[in-house]
Each structure stands twice: as C-alpha cells, then as structure tokens.
Write a structure and sequence with these properties.
The protein is α+β, with helices and mostly antiparallel strands. Helix content is 32%, strand content 29%. The protein has three domains: 109 residues, Immunoglobulin-like, CATH 2.60.40.1730; 96 residues; 102 residues.
Length: 333
C-alpha cells in the first residue's frame, strides 16, 4: 500500500447526482481529505471503485488537478481504479489540515440490467460504502418534469441484505436519515466498523398529470369509436344522411387527437400501464380509420360521388318550378 494512501483520511463525502435525461446524469462528489501525518503531502491516492466516464477533478480553488492510475491499482485490496491525484506546487496538503477535492463525471446510461423488481423501467442503482466514522451526504436530483421514486437498502460485507427491522432501527437511531423535497431526495448516513454498503435505487415515474391526460384521451377515443357507427346507423335509417360531412370531419378530428396524445407514449418504458395504453391507442386509431372508410363507402353508395366531387349537375328537372316561384305568380285578392 502506498504511503500517501495511508497518510490521508476521508472525513466527509458529499454526493450530488443531477439527472439530465431519464437515464443519463452528472455526478459530483466532494470529498474532504485530512493529512494525518506530520509532513506535507502532494499526492493523494483515492480508489474510484469503478470507471468514471468524463472524469474531471478540481481543487478547492477550482483549479483542475492532474491524476493518473496508481501502480498499486488492482493489488492489496484496491480496485483497478486506484488513482494518484497530484496537488499543485505550493498547495500541498499540510499536516493536520483538510482539503476538499471535487470529482465530476457524466454517466450516459442507466443500469437497468436487473428485471425482477424494476422491469419495464429506467432506473439507476447507486452504491455507497458506509466507511467507518465517515459522514456521507447524498443528493439526487430527478430529471425535470418527471416524478421519481427512491428505494434504500443496505447489504453487509457478504452481500446479504439487512431485513426491514434492522433497517428501521438504523433510521430510528439516526444512522440513516432521508427526506424528499421538490425534485430532490436527500440522504445522510454514517458508517461503522461493519463495513456495509448502502444501495439507493432511483427510478423515474410518469407525471400523474400526463397519465390523466392519456386516460382522458383514451376515454374520448373509446366513446367516439363506439357512438360513431351507432349515430351513422341511426341517421341512415331515418333518412338523415343527406349531409355526411360531420361523419367525416369528426373521426378525422378524433384520429388526429389520438395520434397527438399517442406521441406522449414514448414514455411507455417507464410504466407497464403505458404499454397497455399504447396498444389500445393503436387499436382505436385503426378502428376509427376503418369506420372512416366505411362512412366514405356508405356515402358513395347512397349519394354517389357528387358530395365529394362537388361538380355534379343539379338533379332538379328544368321543367319544374319551385314553390317559391309559384308564389311569385299568385295574384293578391
């Protein structure tokens, strides 16, 4: 183990995860290191634990810090992502001093390879080491215009999950604290010698207001698909089909409305119910198109092509005169 790794101690960690889309996010970690030695340190070793895409490391004053893979990576209990962080000259970490280093990276996709509990949903699972005597704070900011849900569990060093009673005991003892406000979820925890791991599963949900609009559109399309042939049948039997323009424009309007609302169902991967709604919308649009074709066909059989071409001659006999014309010839008493 490198001497620099032993001399530094992590006192506090603050994580911020800001989702740019449903599956990509920017991660910012502010880690406070302390120098436990009596000499200055110009190299800080830190184990990232995993690959961090587009990683950028900055000092307290905002200066960009250089880093490189440590020779000890992959050995002596360290992961392959153990790095050396090089502090600038004249800004070494002094004895008994603290320095907060900021790590920022961008993750372009979510970890949705598990299907048991989170099937048909985009989610990200974060892992946090509950290091002994280290205070950690987590902020998760959801994507704009979406609801979200965060679930928490803890696993021991053997990978076994703590049962609910044990988890609630940690909450009562304020070892684990969390709350939700607006687009953000806040968590804080403090580790101990047990060396457990906190897991947070973040999942975006479809906004309730959007679900309501989708359901309204579904009801509107279903009612229209049912009553349109009923109204057409009634009009045909009662001789009211002289002007079929309403029976044409209305289904066109309904189809257009349903197609627009169906465009919102690109979110169907977020909710299993939306997959069902998506199929129903497709079925309703297909039914209405069939009904529209039926209206054209029936109108053609009843009236011919004249209502659609608009250039047919009048069917009135030229030798006939109208009642209004007869009135013109009537003599007053």
């Amino acid at each position: 183990m490198a001497e620099e790794y032993v001399k530094t101690k992590i006192e506090r960690v603050r994580y911020l995860f800001r989702f740019e889309t449903l599956s990509s996010y920017t991660a910012i970690s502010e880690i406070t290191f302390s120098n436990e030695d009596t000499e200055c340190i110009n190299i800080i070793q830190y184990d990232l634990g995993e690959y961090k895409p587009f990683l950028k490391i900055t000092d307290t004053n905002g200066e960009l810090l250089e880093f490189a893979k440590a020779q000890e990576a992959g050995r002596e209990g360290c992961s392959d992502y153990l790095i050396n962080i090089y502090l600038p000259q004249n800004r070494e970490l002094k004895p008994r001093s603290r320095r907060t280093i900021t790590f920022q990276n961008f993750s372009p996709s979510s970890n949705d390879d598990e299907e048991a509990k989170y099937e048909n949903a985009k989610y990200v699972r974060f892992h946090f080491e509950m290091a002994d005597q280290v205070n950690s704070y987590v902020i998760i900011e959801a994507a704009e215009h979406f609801d979200f849900d965060d679930t928490v569990d803890i696993v021991d060093r053997d990978g076994a999950e703590l049962d609910k009673d044990e988890l609630m005991r940690l909450v009562r003892e304020r070892v684990l604290v969390g709350h939700k406000s607006g687009r953000r979820a806040y968590l804080s925890f403090k580790g101990d010698a047990a060396k457990r791991t906190l897991r947070v599963t973040h999942r975006h949900d479809v906004p309730k207001r959007l679900l309501n609009w989708i359901r309204v559109g579904l009801a509107f399309g279903g009612i229209s698909a049912f009553f349109l042939p009923v109204g057409l049948f009634y009009s045909f039997n009662n001789g009211l089909l002289n002007d079929s323009s309403l029976f044409v424009t209305y289904p066109v309007f309904v189809i257009t409305t349903l197609v627009i609302i169906k465009g919102w169902l690109f979110l169907k991967d977020l909710d299993r119910d939306l997959e069902f709604y998506n199929k129903v919308y497709i079925a309703l649009v297909a039914i209405l198109i069939v009904e529209l074709i039926g209206i054209f066909t029936l109108s053609f059989l009843v009236h011919g092509a004249c209502p659609w071409l608009g250039n047919c001659n009048s069917t009135t006999n030229p030798s006939m005169i109208t009642i209004q014309q007869i009135n013109l010839f009537e003599r007053p008493n």
